[in-house]
From TrEMBL:
Domain Helicase ATP-binding intervals: 181-429
Source species: candidate division WOR-3 bacterium RBG_13_43_14
Regions crossing the membrane: none
Protein name, per record: Helicase ATP-binding domain-containing protein
Family per record: Belongs to the helicase family. DinG subfamily.
Keywords: 4Fe-4S, ATP-binding, DNA damage, DNA repair, DNA-binding, Helicase, Hydrolase, Iron, Iron-sulfur, Isomerase, Metal-binding, Nucleotide-binding
Gene3D superfamilies, sorted: 1.10.275.30, 3.90.320.10, P-loop containing nucleotide triphosphate hydrolases (3.40.50.300)
Example of a GO biological process term: DNA repair
Length: 778
């Protein structure tokens, strides 16, 4: 049975006829909503015999596959032996000038519809009509032509010929890919403990079209074990694409490494790593248009040639995309989005699937659900999702723009003044002084003024006039639109937070529970596999991640010998905020005692920078000779890499790194062998008390009675476990984890600690010394 390849008329023309510059700075004159309303207005005015939104399809059978071309005609009128195909276009252009500056894509679309209809009904000729509607003036101009079937065929067939050549290449590639997958064996002689179990469960989950949570510590090889069954399903044409979603560069690197291992064993797969625009753009200081950037100028003239050349490669990594972009002078970010349409395995950040502002509409605006989501470090998705579905604006943003617009755009200047007045009224309502408050209602008064600002901004931006303030206005416009879109979603899962100080007021629409939004996006996947080293308690993650009732969960122990990891606990040191000044000296002495037993590299994790700093100061007084390195807030990526680089195999002296739990150094870093000897974890990782955390607590208290656990305890212990997981990264590693807190061995924390941990407690320093001597064999 031949496979069917579907393509819309619009996508067909975009591929075959695209020309000109890439321009991400020109503002569209008409919104989608306005366009839809205008279409409906015209359609409702047509005669009774006029049919609206008529589906049309046309099939072309080749030796290998069937190409099915589909479209939806705006209108079809059959009357008095005349058939007219109508295509409606909204515009703000002067209608008297329309015929002087005809848009070839408009005619291309209606001519394709006409050919498909005429071919279906054996017509010798047919009329086509472009109906232009000036949305400002409410005027209509109709341009009509009659075409014979031969004229339409002469136009249509070269387009199809161009596209079929590309589809032949895609079909040939799919055969090569599937053959390689079907002949692919597990790349190693033996499975690691638990690896075969993961592969089996993932395979069943995808086959059964359900969601699966895989809790597996480092060392099992879960990236490979989860990717391989997904690839095998792809090789049977039961999936369209695989999305490997990860929050960090290290996760992306792990996925790329797993695919490269399989490639060495014969796998052919086209994989793409989507890199954030600000990290891959070669001209970050230039605007994204043909006037300012050579990679945007004539982009669409070169895109297809670049695509044809690129398709000779399989691995579209950051460097590969950059090299292609330079060779063909195309924007690397836009070109990577183009490549995503034709690649099999897409590695990207969570936001390309879940974030309503930047998700890949080319995939997820349709009802297609032949995708598989592989969600790495899934414990991070909950807090990331809260941020994605929240929005915040502050008073200062509007004042700064207002100052730029003074004496330039009076209408917008007045609108910004009204927004500022609204902010001042809200501030006065809640009193003077710094405070953070919350309400269960949306900020309706502000929304009204923001809508007016948005409309005024659209009017000016649509003129596409250069101005020194244009970029600032455009940025704020998009922020406002995002805020208003978030406000439209406001329901019982949301609250409004007001953060007030003497100089400013920020208003945040806060998503307390993002599960509903996650669930709606998960519906685009045939199966979603969540995996992490920490996915307990199961009930918490199933609920918070928006999983459905059929979701399954598996948990596997560490594959490494338990005697290689020493777990020491002292539950006699209080890390409560009120006691930290009293315990900092004890903490410092304990750290000094630990490192004196074994020269090596150590990481000490704290619940806050303040607690870190006060303990660090005490440590340096007690042990001024040991080398130390300290994490600071807002470190750049280069600074983070330099921090990690100091943990070396070759060091002959001890190094102690002071870091914050939940930060860049407490997960997704691999310090194998002697690069890390031990970790000290201070506290149970509770997030600081805040208005937002209290909203989460109150919400889940009302929902299931577990508010404090959902808001504080579970997120906290996950940080502890992630930090502890840095110590043993391979079968040859050996190291110590020292947990310090009075609560760590009490519910619910003790129920979440790994069962294979052989926990040994101590109270006095001499007891710690004995335990360390036993572990290190001194």
């Amino acid at each position: 049975m031949k496979s069917i390849i579907n393509i819309s008329v619009r996508d067909l023309l975009d591929f075959c006829l695209r020309r000109g510059d890439l321009d991400l700075t020109t503002f569209g004159a008409i919104s989608t909503t306005e366009g839809i309303k205008a279409h409906q207005q015209i359609q409702n005015q047509r005669p009774e015999e006029y049919q609206s939104e008529v589906f049309i399809s046309h099939e072309i059978e080749t030796l290998e596959y069937i190409l099915q071309i589909t479209g939806r005609m705006d209108g079809l009128r059959i009357a008095d032996d005349q058939i007219i195909i109508d295509e409606i276009k909204t515009t703000k252009q002067d209608l008297t000038q329309i015929e002087l500056f005809e848009n070839p894509l408009h005619w291309a679309q209606v001519k394709c519809y006409a050919y498909m209809y005429a071919q279906k009904y054996n017509l010798g000729k047919i009329d086509v009509q472009l109906t232009y509607f000036n949305i400002d003036e409410g005027k209509i101009k109709e341009i009509k032509h009659e075409f014979t079937i031969d004229e339409l065929r002469a136009y249509f067939e070269p387009l199809i010929s161009t596209y079929i050549k590309w589809m032949d290449k895609i079909h040939e590639w799919t055969t090569i890919r599937n053959d390689s997958i079907n002949n692919l064996a597990f790349p190693f002689r033996d499975f690691r403990h638990g690896q075969e179990k993961i592969m089996s469960e993932v395979g069943y989950a995808i086959a059964d079209q359900i969601q699966l949570l895989v809790e597996a510590p480092t060392g099992i090889g879960k990236t490979l074990a989860i990717s391989l069954p997904a690839l095998q399903t792809l090789g049977r044409n039961e999936l369209f694409k695989i999305f490997y979603l990860t929050a960090r560069t290290t996760g992306r690197n792990a996925a790329e490494a797993a695919l490269n291992i399989l490639r060495e064993k014969g796998l052919r797969i086209k994989s793409l790593s989507l890199i954030a625009k600000d990290k891959i753009c070669p001209n970050p200081d230039r605007l994204c248009n043909g006037r300012d950037c050579k990679f945007a100028a004539g982009y669409y003239n070169r895109a297809n040639n670049a695509l044809q050349s690129a398709f000779e490669n399989d691995n579209f990594s950051h460097n590969a995309i950059t090299d292609l972009a330079i060779e063909y002078q195309v924007c690397p970010f836009e070109f990577s989005l183009e490549l995503s349409l034709w690649c099999d395995f897409i590695i990207c950040d969570y936001n390309y699937v879940f974030d309503p502002k930047v998700y890949l509409r080319r995939f997820f605006d349709d009802d297609v659900n032949d995708y598989c989501f592989l969600i790495d470090e899934a414990h991070n998705l909950i807090e990331r999702a809260r941020a994605m579905y929240s929005a915040e604006l502050n008073k200062k943003q509007f004042l700064e723009l207002r100052q730029l617009l003074k004496n330039k755009l009076p209408k917008l200047y007045r609108s910004l003044g009204k927004i500022n007045t609204t902010y001042l009224k809200i501030k006065k309502q809640y009193g003077s002084g710094a405070a953070t408050l919350a309400e269960n209602d949306p900020p309706s008064a502000l929304q009204s003024e923001l809508e007016k600002f948005s409309n005024h901004a659209e009017e000016w931006l649509a003129l596409n006039q250069p101005a020194d303030f244009r970029e600032v206005l455009l940025d704020l416009y998009f922020d406002v639109r995002g805020f208003l879109k978030t406000a439209e979603r406001f329901d019982s899962n949301y609250a409004t937070c007001y953060n007030i100080n003497d100089q400013n007021l920020s208003i945040k629409i806060f998503c307390v529970n993002p599960a509903y939004h996650l669930r709606s996006m998960l519906e685009h996947a045939r199966s979603s596999i969540f995996f992490s080293g920490t996915l307990k308690p199961t009930e918490y993650f199933l609920e918070a991640l928006g999983c459905d009732g059929s979701a399954r969960h598996i948990s596997l122990p560490s594959p490494f010998a338990s005697e290689n990891l020493g777990i020491l606990v002292t539950n006699r040191v209080s890390t409560f905020f009120r006691n930290r000044h009293h315990t900092k000296e004890i903490l410092a002495r304990t750290i000094v005692n630990l490192i004196k037993h074994r020269t090596g590299n150590y990481l000490v994790y704290f619940p806050s920078y303040e607690y870190l700093q006060m303990t660090f100061d005490c440590f340096k007084k007690q042990d001024p000779n040991t080398s130390t390195i300290i994490q600071t807030s807002n470190m750049t990526e280069q600074e983070r890499l330099q921090f990690i680089a100091q943990f070396s195999h070759e060091s002959k002296n001890s190094l102690v790194g002071f870091a914050v739990m939940g930060g860049a150094f407490s997960e997704s870093i691999d310090l194998i062998g002697d690069r890390l000897t031990g970790a000290v974890i201070v506290g149970v990782g509770l997030p600081p008390v805040s208005t937002e955390r209290e909203l989460i607590r109150e919400y889940f208290d009302s929902l299931n009675g577990n508010g404090y656990a959902y808001a504080y305890q579970y997120p906290g212990i996950i940080k502890v476990l992630q930090a502890a997981g840095r110590v043993i990264r391979s079968e040859n590693d050996r190291g110590i984890v020292l947990l310090i807190d009075t609560r760590i061995l009490t519910p619910p924390y003790d129920d979440i600690l790994p069962r294979e941990w052989d926990i040994k407690q101590f109270i006095r320093p001499d007891e710690l010394n004995v335990l360390l001597d036993e572990f290190w064999g001194i």
